[in-house]
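Bit of a strange request maybe. I'm writing a small parser for structure token strings and I need a real example to test against, not something I typed by hand. Could someone generate the tokens for this chain?
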Amino acid sequence: MANRRYLVRGHVQGVSYRAAARQRARELGINGLARNLPDGRVEVLASADEAALAQLESFLWRGPTLARVDAIEVEEVAAQLPAGFTIG
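Reply from user aminoacidic:
Good idea to test on real output. This should exercise your parser:
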């Protein structure tokens, strides 16, 4: 299991980005959360095997129809995430 933090920058708030990320993460069996940050980015914390995380990251670059993703910062984290995927 790997744990990653994705900081997504662009037009990602107010366009159902977190809900779409939650739906895709649940489809992939990923644990974690997605939340808006005060600076306009979305933070996604995810825990899963490498293949599932790669699929999630690919989705995060696209997002829902109205989103525009300009950049994603990715880092490994040591956090233990609870089961399921939530929106914070």
